[in-house]
Specification:
This protein has helices at about 120-125, 210-235, 240-245; strands at about 1-10, 15, 20, 35, 45-55, 60, 65-75, 80-85, 90-95, 100-105, 115-120, 130-135, 145-155, 160-170, 180-185, 195, 205, 210. The chain is mainly beta.
């Protein structure tokens, strides 16, 4: 006995034998393969499979030919898939500046989805003076493509350093589906101060030399010269020999008057 096989599968493509031969007194199993497109929306499709006897013992069946059918419900389920591409790969930011990061996002899933944006180690970057104004996308239809942007802002005390920022885009429908994009921040912090405090937090440092130390040296030299001048004016011409015998360090004896 032989039978013709027909399959009705709606938007699904199918593959099945056109006819089968069934030995007398036996059963025969055959397979029907169904295939859908990735862009198909979530839905339920009724698939009807029919087998009609066409010959019995080699004789064509023309009247009262037996047949059988089966109905199968095929469920097209939603899945998530994301495409992401960062437009600018590098940002140059100084103190108290901001810039936008633009990522082209596309919903490659077969149903509406919302994409969540997350910065890796965001709290650590914020402790260094960076802030991120990030929002999730709105509802994206299947195959919809949108440019999505967020803002990076620097404070007044960022380090001068290069940062590699990892951005994770995650599906709200299926949080296990995510993609990662990377962009670079070339950060330039505030300039180094020309004048700072020394280790005792009181003496100013200029060029690595304590200003207070310089003032003290200048003061000692000035008072020493002044003292020598006084002695020279107070002695007479006949005192040259006696003056030459004076200890050279006596010039600084007058410093005691200032202590």
């Amino acid at each position: 006995m032989s039978a013709d096989i027909t399959v009705s599968s709606g938007n699904l493509s199918n593959a099945a034998p056109g006819s089968v031969t069934i030995p007398a007194g036996e059963e025969l199993t055959f397979q029907v393969a169904l295939r859908g497109e990735s862009t198909m929306s979530p839905s339920m499709i009724d698939v009807a499979i029919n087998a009609s006897v066409t010959t019995i013992n080699g004789v064509p069946c023309t009247f009262g030919c037996p047949e059988d059918s089966a109905d199968v419900d095929v469920v097209i389920v939603q899945f998530a898939r994301i495409s992401a591409q960062t437009r600018a790969g590098e940002l140059n930011l100084g103190v108290d500046q901001s810039a936008e990061v633009v990522i082209d996002l596309q919903n490659l899933g077969n149903g509406q989805d919302i994409f969540e944006i997350e910065i890796e180690n965001q709290s650590g970057l914020e402790s260094l003076g960076f802030s991120f104004d990030i929002q999730s996308t709105g509802n994206l239809d299947p195959q919809e493509k949108v440019p999505h942007n967020f803002t990076v802002t620097t404070g007044g005390d960022i380090p001068t350093e290069t940062f590699e920022i990892e951005v994770y885009i995650r599906s709200s429908f299926d949080p296990e589906i995510e993609v990662m994009e990377v962009f670079i921040i070339q950060a330039e912090g505030p300039p180094e101060p020309l004048v700072t405090l020394g280790s005792d937090d009181t003496a100013l440092i200029m060029g690595g030399v304590s200003v207070a130390g310089l003032i003290l040296v200048f003061l000692i030299v000035f008072m020493g010269v002044r003292s020598a001048r006084r002695r020279q004016l107070s002695r007479g011409p006949s005192e040259d020999d006696e003056w030459s015998e004076v200890d050279e360090y006596d010039d600084f004896d007058d410093l005691d008057d200032f202590m």
